Amino acid sequence: xxxxxxxxxxxxxxxxxxxxxxxxxxxxxxxxxxxxxxxxxxxxxxxxxxxxxxxxxxxxxxxxxxxxxxxxxxxxxxxxxxxxxxxxxxxxxxxxxxxxxxxxxxxxxxxxxxxxxxxxxxxxxxxxxxxxxxxxxxxxxxxxxxxxxxxxxxxxxxxxxxxxxxxxxxxxxxxxxxxxxxxxxxxxxxxxxxxxxxxxxxxxxxxxxxxxxxxxxxxxxxxxxxx
Length: 227
What we know:
By secondary structure, the protein is of the alpha/beta class.
């Protein structure tokens, strides 16, 4: 579904926002829409339609594409479709959000596979200066330190990685396992983006991670040119 604006020249700069139906994703999209064509994405079609309606305003150029960040092919198709509108210069991954009632496996799957898949699919379409921002979570005071071999599973066996991190989380008492899954997946996200940042740097692109509450501020300073 497209809502092309006709009052602003976005010069074919494209921004992709996953988790676009979330408050964090929609807030980032509103800011990026000032000088980007925005591709808003979420796995939940009905919520995505409502989010696009909320984004719609005079001068905004935007469209919505349903995509599941836990499915690599779905994310690759999203990025390729976005690139048809112009060079993808900004990506905000606000997807992978979970609920406290979700199972440890669901939490790990959404957050870990989302991080891996959006990173890989963005790198495939990245050009000089492309910036990917991962919304890690609310800031945490203490995170587990993951062994290095965990990160080697990411490209080679992502499903095995999900199973491994889920098992770690379920070593806790059942009532604490969801919180443990959240902390473990956040630790993975931060470590993985730090490692992949070097790959992005070598391509002339950038990879950042920031707590969800800081995403809009980072977009304002790093992704939207000053007026």
